[in-house]
């Protein structure tokens, strides 16, 4: 049995600064979310729903579903019939090189890997092909952090509030 590569630190060459993250999140509109789950409690679903709610067009990529979050789901990146700005990867590190090649093939502008997912060789390949690369970060968290969607616990769930509830007495 072959073990997946050990996660490494993001090479300084691929560390995204605030200006770069803000530029990417402001300029992109169509996000292919690879590994998007239909289950509402999965991070991919939560993040994609947040992105939809904030004006991004989310295209689900998962061979296990026909539809997720009201959008047609595609089995692979190559099956998507429209242009994609960001390939947001909710897959393991072992799949990142293949997803990078697919992102390049479809003409994506950005390769984004989620928290804990670092593959410096794939990032180098993407950069050499002209893509911006963001690794080991969550689009939802970065958008909320940079555009005002975080609250005191770090995520705006609208479940926890510092405001006292209004009491109505009949």
CATH superfamily membership = NAD(P)-binding Rossmann-like Domain
Proportion in β-strands: 5-15%
Strand order of the largest sheet: 2-1-5-6-7
Overall number of structural domains = 1
CATH overall fold name: Rossmann fold
Low-confidence stretches: 156-160
* Top-tier CATH class: Alpha Beta
Computed Rg: 17 Å
Largest sheet, strands/sense/barrel: 5 strands, parallel
Structure annotation, total helices: 5
Q: State the separation between the terminal residues, measured CA to CA.
A: 67 Å
Shape by Cα distribution: globular
Known CATH architecture: 3-Layer(aba) Sandwich
Q: List the quaternary state of the chains.
A: single chain
Average of the residue pLDDT scores? 87
Order of helices and strands: HEHEEEEHEHEH
Structural class: alpha/beta
Provide the helix percentage: 25-40%
- Give me the count of strands: 7
Attribute tags:
170 residues; alpha/beta; Rossmann fold; five-stranded parallel sheet; two-stranded antiparallel ribbon; 5 helices; 7 strands; globular
């Amino acid at each position: 049995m072959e073990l997946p590569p050990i996660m490494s630190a993001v090479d300084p060459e691929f560390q995204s600064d605030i200006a770069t993250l803000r530029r990417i999140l402001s300029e992109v509109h169509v996000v292919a979310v690879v590994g998007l789950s239909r289950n509402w409690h999965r991070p991919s679903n939560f993040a994609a729903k947040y992105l939809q709610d904030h004006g991004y067009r989310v295209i689900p990529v998962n061979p296990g579903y026909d539809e997720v979050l009201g959008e047609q789901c595609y089995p692979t990146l190559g099956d998507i019939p429209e242009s994609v700005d960001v390939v947001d990867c909710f897959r393991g590190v072992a799949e990142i090189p293949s997803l990078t090649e697919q992102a390049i093939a479809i003409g994506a502008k950005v390769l984004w890997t989620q928290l804990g997912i670092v593959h410096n060789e794939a990032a180098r390949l993407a950069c050499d092909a002209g893509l911006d690369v963001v690794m080991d970060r969550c689009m939802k968290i970065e958008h909320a952090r940079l555009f005002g969607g975080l609250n005191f616990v770090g995520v705006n769930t609208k479940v926890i509030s510092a405001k006292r509830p209004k009491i109505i007495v009949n």
